[in-house]
Amino acid sequence: MPNKPSASRRAAKEIPLGGKPAATEGILLRYRDADTPYGVTRKTASQLAKTLGLTETQVIHAALAHFARQNLPRYEADTGPLTAKQQEAIHEMQPSGRMTVKESLF
After folding, report:
1. What phi, psi does 36 have (nearest 5°)?
2. CA-CA distance, 37 to 41, in Å (whole number)?
3. To which H or E segment does residue 67 belong?
4. CA dihedral in degrees (60, 63, 67, 69; nearest 10)?
5. Which class for 101: exposed (0-12), middle (13-18), buried (19 or more C-beta within 10 A)?
6. DSSP state of 103
7. Tell me, what's the pLDDT at 67?
8. Do residues 62 and 69 touch, judged by C-beta distance below 8 A?
9. How far is it, in rounded angstroms, from Cα 43 to Cα 60?
10. Which of 45, 82, 94, 100 is the most exposed place for a label (fewest CB within 10 A)?
11. For residues 102 and 94, what is the distance between their CA atoms, to the nearest angstrom?
């Protein structure tokens, strides 16, 4: 009968190194044969990593973070025009006699 690992040895295997949870999902990255506007060769990725003092994985994360900052909105989408109740609340917050409320800029 084979020896079963003790509970402490089983628990040690479940704790990832560095105390961080292991990634549950990943992607496969295939480098291109030539650099294009939407892909790079392994040589280019290696040069970037060396120039920036990062690993290739860090370069990929930095590129994705940069792409996200450029292309994803940083605020909630507008839900449309104000309701009558919202307009009334804004009107009530304004000091009396100091401002004129206009419904249109033009």
Report:
1. -135, 175
2. 11
3. helix 56-71
4. 110
5. exposed
6. S
7. 94
8. no
9. 14
10. 100
11. 12
How many Å apart are CA 67 and CA 64, to the nearest integer?
Answer: 5
Q: What is residue 92's predicted lDDT score, i.e. its pLDDT?
A: 86
Amino acid 32 reads R
Q: Which two structure tokens, joined as six digits, stand for 96?
A: 């009396």
- What is the maximal distance between C-alpha atoms in the chain? 92
Q: What is the DSSP letter of 36?
A: B
Write down the residue that tokens 């009334």 correspond to.
Answer: 88
d(CA 39, CA 32): 6
Cα separation, 33 vs 57, in Å, equals 19
DSSP-derived letter for residue 85 is H
Query: How many angstroms from the chain centroid is the CA of residue 24?
Result: 17
For residue 8, which amino acid is it?
A: S
Q: Which residues of the chain have pLDDT under 50?
A: 1, 8-13
Give the pLDDT confidence score for residue 105 in this predicted structure. 72
Q: Are 101 and 91 in contact (CB under 8 A)?
A: yes
